[in-house]
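# nightly structure sweep
# worker-07 picked up a monomer target from the shared queue
# config: single-sequence mode, recycle default, output format = structure tokens
# input follows
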Amino acid sequence: MNTIAMTVQHVLITILFWAACSAAYAQGQQKKILEVRIDELIKSLGSGAPKAQAEAEHGLFAIGEPAAARLREVAAKSPTQQSEKLSKLAHRIEWGIATRPVRMLVLGLVNYEDTHGSLPAAYTTGTDGKPLLSWRVELLGKFRTVELLKWSR
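# output follows
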């Protein structure tokens, strides 16, 4: 290999290395920002205003799994009454995450029924009368997330 090719290769490897480092740094910064936001929302739960508490819960639900994990950590270090409240909220968030695919499936069925006037057939058939695709394939266009598309396979 000539020296120019080796130099170009070295430069490219260096660029890729720094790109990977900066991506890892950015990801770490995002994680820190998310942790700070979760802690702010948890502090808002303790405020007396019901609206602030509701907004904090909504924010924690939107964040999802990282929020539930942090709530469990804070609950372990909190007094009993607050600990119980935080644990219940973490459980509700985890339950919401776990049941989301089923809720999306139901929403897909409802959207299909609204569009077509009936639920999808068990399967579609080709011109030769042989079954082609199941009802799940009919619903794929009604889903709003890729997550459920992956889950349905």
